[in-house]
Amino acid sequence: MPDKNVVHSPLMETLNAVNAAGLYTTVVRERAEFAAAGENTEGASTRPLPTFFWIRHAELCHPETGFYGELLRTLMTRSGIVNRRFAAASFLLRYGWSSGAMLAPLLMDRPIPWYTTEEAELCFANNTLFQAICLGSDRFIIDRDHEFSLDPHCALTYSDRNAAIRLVADRLAQQSNPIVAALHQWSGFSGKALWAMVSSSWVGQLINISKTLGLPEEQLRRYLTVFYDQWRPLAHALPRWYFIRDQGKNHCFHVRASCCLYFKGKERHFCASCPVIDEAERIERNRQWIAKYG
User: Domains of the chain by range and CATH?
Assistant: First the structure.
């Protein structure tokens, strides 16, 4: 029997819908809701990393300490690339996937979580991959004409879909800025290269979520165009996106503005979005992806 004392906020309904859609980003309000993260990993870091561990968003400005520092060292150890620039780039590619907490609700036309960096924690696995984001806030933003605009948890309203895209674009950049700055100081990698990693994951999320939700191509083009326009200060670090016609459909891909250095590792692996390989090889990799995943 349902508990009459439980209040289901608009944001909780959003998170349930996001998680049910089978997207890359799991979003929860409490750590315990993410089943894989059963162990308590508070306190000092140990070697090796726990199977799953949480890092507060605000802690990502301190790359030398705690589980965050251990994660960066693990990135170098596992790849065989003992290079801080590589570790910084690899981490930001993973960190960028947390953007799905806002991008998915935006693309689903649902209340969009509106949280500060102090109100978020990110879960990673000891294989270094991002797992989930936990939000310590019920606040959201929504269209000013929606009935939820009167909800006490509504932090902000917007006038139309383009305004929502711009708000989310600004929020993502604001949250990422101190993290990129700290990794720039720690690694010595250029700001352009580091922003290229974050923006690559943002655009990858936009593309992949749109595909999963079956959104029309013209809608994806609109979202990408407005995002790019809002991210003009990062223009030199934004990936280039393009469509490939195959199997009767247009498939969207992107190429990063800078290389993540992964090709320097033991396996000499090149990403499908790598700017180092030539155009023909990258397009062939894209077509192989289409053949495998459709």
Answer: 10-293 (1.10.510.40)
